[in-house]
Amino acid sequence: MDELIARLESYLNGSLTLDAFEQWFYDLAFDIEKRDCNGYMDLVHRIEGILAESSHGGWTNETLRAELSSLLEEYSEPVGVWEINEPYRPAVKSRSSGMLVGLAPVWR
Q: Cα–Cα distance between 21 and 14 in angstroms, integer?
């Protein structure tokens, strides 16, 4: 699961394109039944749902990033807040990489 979180963080912080993330992710998701461990399958299915909704719902990149970022809140520790054209959301620090993930940090 650490690699999935790290790749998701890479997409969210802009160091990985959406196309590159999706290509890697769908290869992983293809045989997820063989890899399940400690909630891994649930996280993969949730990401699949978000990606499917975004591609069919005409979401903006910011909306997609916000939805994917919300998943990291469950797998990371809070360190501050950020603003994405909506009420404040917690920024997160990954347990696996220690990287901060968020958009437009607004520290208080």
A: 11
Indicate whether 15 belongs to any domain: yes
Residue 58's contacts (CB-CB under 8 Å, 6 or more residues apart) are none
Number of residues written out for the chain: 108
Pick from 27, 15, 7: nearest CA to 68: 7
For tokens 């809140």, the residue is: 73
Distances in Å between the Cα of 19 and the Cα atoms of 16, 22, 23, 70, 80 are 8, 5, 6, 20, 29
- pTM for this entry: 0.67
Residue at token pair 């400690």: 38
- Which two three-digit tokens encode residue 24? 């890697």
Residues paired with 81 in a beta bridge: 90
pLDDT at res. 108: 42
Chain-centroid distance of CA 22 in Å reads 12
Q: Is residue 20 part of a domain?
A: yes
